[in-house]
Specification:
The protein has 341 residues and is of the alpha/beta class. It folds into two domains: 199 residues, Isopropylmalate Dehydrogenase (3-Layer(aba) Sandwich), CATH 3.40.718.10; 138 residues, Isopropylmalate Dehydrogenase. The chain contains 13 helices and twelve strands. α1 packs across α2. The relative contact order is 0.17. The model has no long low-confidence stretch (mean pLDDT 93).
């Protein structure tokens, strides 16, 4: 992989800056590919110093020199108009949200233009971003819009060492889930996930397990008919097209160790059905991956954690895992392009 990865800061008042600093100090031990950060040189320096991390910052003028600078220090590409943003751990503010948004926009643009091999996003506070004009439910939807992709075609996958899950519905109330689920939504997102797992993760024919929506997967209609009316037809269509799909499975048994060995990803009907098992099993190594985009995007599967920001308590494991996964996916895409050229 010739190009570096680009990282967005996330909310600078959260744990993002110290996790980025910690990840750079672990670059050799964890075999991380070169990366640089869009903005925040001063606050990254302050965060590293406060957390007793030996991490010099190297200000760069363009991404092309990031790989060369990476061993000297953390390469940071300055953002116009945000040079004086300070580090205020645990104290989210409007200026910090503006910097987080500017960093996200610049990092996305660099990945989209081919100046960076992949994008790793830092954790943000959605309510803070809304105050500075962010009109999307989350970063996944923002990236879909920025890449010209329909929101339903940007698929969130949570991946850890022992489990991968996909929530079909994400930023909505639980009461809305049944009305949002359609056979077409299930079919389309599952097909996108299967292709992405093959292309970016090297799983030639992914084994996909679909969870049911209701207890006991509806138990033949006794506890709801969505399994028979919506999920089963989608599974039939996917199987007819050659995808290795099973289900609908009762969700209460789907994540036992014996069951996890039978599939490569579990497609779930709603947010908590997918995220609770992932975080219970792989909290410190969970990665959020957006499938279906023309760019590679990963992020640590946790939030800003304002309550512990600046206290040296944050675990960089998920950030390291997100960087490593982005690099691995970038290598596979690059190899595929070379083979097809």
């Amino acid at each position: 992989m010739d190009l570096p990865l680009v990282l967005s800061l996330g909310d600078p008042s959260g744990i993002g800056p110290e996790l980025i600093a910690a990840a750079w100090t672990r670059r050799e031990a964890d075999g991380l590919p070169p990366f640089f950060v869009a903005g925040g040189a001063g606050l990254l320096t302050a965060a590293a110093r406060h957390c007793n991390l030996d991490m010099p910052v190297v200000r760069i003028e363009h991404p092309g020199v990031a790989a060369e600078a990476f061993n000297e220090g953390l390469p940071v590409l300055p953002l116009a108009g945000h040079a004086n943003a300070g580090w205020r751990p645990g104290e989210p503010c409007r200026d910090g949200a503006a910097l987080a948004l500017a960093s996200l926009e610049e990092a996305c643009a660099l990945a989209s233009s081919g100046a960076a091999a992949a994008l790793v996003t830092g954790p943000v506070a959605k309510h803070a971003l809304a105050e500075v004009g962010f009109a999307h439910p989350g970063q996944t939807e923002f990236l879909a819009h920025a890449c010209g992709i329909a929101p339903h075609d940007a698929v969130m996958m949570l991946a850890g060492p022992t489990l991968r899950t996909i929530p079909l519905t994400v930023h909505c109330a639980l009461a809305e889930v049944a009305d949002l689920l359609t056979a077409e939504l299930i079919y389309r997102r599952t097909a996108i996930a299967a292709r992405a797992l093959a292309n970016d993760f090297g799983i030639a024919k992914p084994r996909i397990a679909l969870a049911g929506l209701n207890p006991h997967a509806g138990e033949g209609g006794k506890f709801g008919d969505e399994e028979m009316r919506i999920i089963a037809p989608a599974i039939a269509k996917l199987r007819a097209e050659g995808f290795d799909v099973t289900g609908p499975h009762p969700a209460d048994a789907l994540f036992a160790a014996r069951q996890r060995a039978t599939y490569d990803v579990a497609v779930c009907m709603y947010h908590d059905q997918a995220l609770i098992p992932l975080k219970a099993l792989d909290f410190d190594a969970g990665v959020n991956v957006t499938l279906g985009l023309p760019i590679i995007r990963t992020s640590a599967d946790h939030g800003t954690a304002f309550g512990i920001a600046g206290k040296g308590l944050a675990d960089a494991g998920a950030t390291v895992a997100a960087i490593r996964m982005a690099g691995d996916c970038a290598v596979r895409r690059s190899s595929e392009r070379q083979q097809n050229s």
